[in-house]
Every structure is written in structure tokens, then in C-alpha cells.
Amino acid sequence: MLTESELLSKVKELGDVSKSDLVRSCGYVSTKKDGSERLNFTAFYEALLEAKGVSLGDGVGKGKGKGKGKGGRTLSYVATVQGNGNLLVGKAYTALLSLEPGDEFEIKLGRKQIRLIPAGSTDEDE
Fold first, then answer.
1. With contact defined as beta carbons under 8 Å apart, do 105 and 119 qualify?
2. Nearest residue to 90 (alpha-carbon basis) of 77, 109, 102, 103
3. Which of 50, 37, 43 is CA-nearest to residue 8?
4. Which residues, at least 6 apart from 40, have a Cβ–Cβ distance to it below 8 Å?
5. Which helix or strand (DSSP H or E) is residue 24 part of?
6. Residue pair 50/66 in contact by the 8 Å Cβ criterion
7. Which long-range contacts (CB under 8 A, 24 or more apart) does 71-77 make?
8. Quick one: which of 94, 85, 95, 91 has its CA closest to 116?
9. CA atoms 63, 66, 68, 69: torsion sign
10. How far apart are CA 6 and CA 63, in angstroms?
11. Tens digits of residue pLDDT in 43-58
12. Which pTM value belongs to this model?
């Protein structure tokens, strides 16, 4: 996949070709499970915007700040108790804290609050 100045040059070189041909020519193609071709328009346009100096903000996760996450979504910092009684903390939040599978926390209950304290630390450490 072309990026930065190579991408801009290729887009300029190709001129008035179809959008599909443009995406394909710049290498934004993957193969589906059934062997057919999938054109990655979103990745292409994100790379094109970045090459033109348009920042899509700091993404969380895979892109390590390069805007590769869910476009337009922001963390609300609000959690809802699910129907089965579980309180889910999503991947975006655990990624912000660099948490890994297996990390342990002590649960401290306060008046109308829940605190998660990393195992082995004290309240004052946080």
C-alpha cells in the first residue's frame, strides 16, 4: 500500500480513473475468505488525507495514534450495567491504560462508586 508522497504521486499520475481502479492501483486491496478481491476504500482515503496533512486525531489501539480506529467514535466514559448484571469496561479503555489479559485488580466499593486498584499497589499509588 502506498503512503505519503508515493501515494500523492500515484493519484496525480493516474488522473481521471475510476475510484475502484485508483484504490486498486495504490495497493489498498485484500483477499476475502472466498478468494475474491476486497477494495479497502476507508484505509485508502485515510492514508490520502494523512498524506495531504489532514490529521484524523489520535486513534486508540492498532494505529498507535494514526487514526486507524473507528472513525468518528469517541469514548464516552459512561458504562451501563448489562441485562445479565455485568458491568463491561471496553477494549478502548483498557488499551488507554495499557492493560493486558491477566492483569489483576482489587475491587474497592465506596458509597455509589467502584474503584479498581491494580493488584500489589495501594490507594495512594493512584
1. yes
2. 77
3. 50
4. 23, 28, 29, 30
5. helix 19-25
6. yes
7. 71/42, 71/46
8. 94
9. positive
10. 20
11. 898 888 888 887 766 5
12. 0.45
CA distances from 45 to 8, 30, 68, 84, 105 (A): 11, 15, 11, 40, 41
pLDDT-derived band at 24, boundaries 50, 70, 90: very high
Cell numbers for 125: 499509588
Please report, as a single letter, which amino acid is at residue 27. G
Cα separation, 18 vs 20, in Å, equals 5
How many residues appear in the chain?
Answer: 126
- Using alpha carbons only, give the angle 92, 97, 102 rounded to the nearest 5 degrees: 90
